[in-house]
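Cross-check.
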Amino acid sequence: MELKPCPFCGCEAVLVNEFFDDYLVMCSNSGCAVEGPLKATSDEAETAWNARPETNLTNSSLERLVDELIEAVRKANGLLDELIRLGKEGMEPDYTRWITFHDKVAELASEARAALTGRGE
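Predicted model, tokenized:
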């Protein structure tokens, strides 16, 4: 069975049989130290290593998501500064726009977290 590369560093994975006749697959990069679970057979160890969520996320779509998140945070911070200024001037600030941007930031952050989790990052 062909092993997928390490989900964290992308290096080659290797099958190891050193633990009381059990098997595991681990990353070949000694600086990474990622290991799959111990299994009774080599097939089980390889299957466990290769079992990970598939994602259609590309680097460009992740970059777009990060750019949107940064822009939403920038706008939310600008609105918050405006609300603070209005409050200091004794005016009653309207928080509706800030809450809308806050919700957008939370939505984008959640989407980014889910995307990164799917990539193993």
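Residues 59-88 form the longest helix (30 residues). The longest strand covers residues 13-19. Passed to J.P. for a second look.
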